[in-house]
Every structure is written in structure tokens, then in C-alpha cells.
Amino acid sequence: MIKTSALIIFILFIYGKTFAQSAASSADISAIRQHYKAISELKLSARHFTYESPGCVEDGVVDFYFNGKEIVKIIESGSIGDGS
């Protein structure tokens, strides 16, 4: 009986902890989505940079988006040569 009770308590503890973690994750994701949406709705100024590094990056591009003097968004792209 004690083993069964301990097993039930353990299962409830694990289930409760897993549920709490997924609820926190959902709240975090929601907050990130709201922040992302707010940034996307701003009128931002952009600065565009290109770069290359032999044997590393070809056609590298970085776009920085500013809200005033604060960088609020960065988009980077480029191809990496892997020798194939």
C-alpha cells in the first residue's frame, strides 16, 4: 500500500511539474509573439551591410533595423562554402 501511494504521489508530482513547464512555455511564447508583433509594426530605419570571407562566407548580408539608436532587429544571410 505504501509503495502504491508513493508511486501515485510521484506520478502526480511529475505530471504537475510537466504541466507547469508547458504552461510557462506557452506564456513565454505568447510574450515573444507580442513583442515581435510590436517591433514589426514600428517604423524602423535600416542599415545594410555586405561581407565576404574567403573559405567561410560568400555573399554575406546583414541588415540592422533601428528604433532610434536601439537595434531591435537583425537579419543575416549568406552561403557557407563546404567544399562540395
Could you walk me through the main structural features you see in this protein, from its secondary elements to its overall organization?
Residues 1-20 form the signal peptide. Keywords: Signal. This protein has 84 residues and is an alpha+beta fold. It folds into two domains: 1-41; 43-84, no CATH class. It has one helix and three strands; from the N terminus they run H-E-E-E. It has one helix spanning 2-41; strands at residues 45-53, 57-67, 70-80. It has a three-stranded antiparallel sheet with strand order 1-2-3, with no helix packed on it. The mean pLDDT is 77.
Quickly give the structural class: alpha+beta
> How much of the sequence is in beta strands?
35-45%
Measure the end-to-end span.
64 Å
Helix-strand sequence: HEEE
Overall domain count: 2
| Tally of DSSP β-strands | 3
Q: Radius of gyration over alpha carbons? A: 24 Å
Describe the global form.
elongated
Contiguous uncertain segments of 5+ residues: none
Number of helices: 1
Q: Sheet bearing the most strands, described? A: 3 strands, antiparallel
Average pLDDT level = 77
- Strand order within the widest beta sheet: 1-2-3
Helical fraction equals: 40-55%
Question: Which key terms come to mind for this protein?
Answer:
about 50% helix; 3 strands; alpha+beta
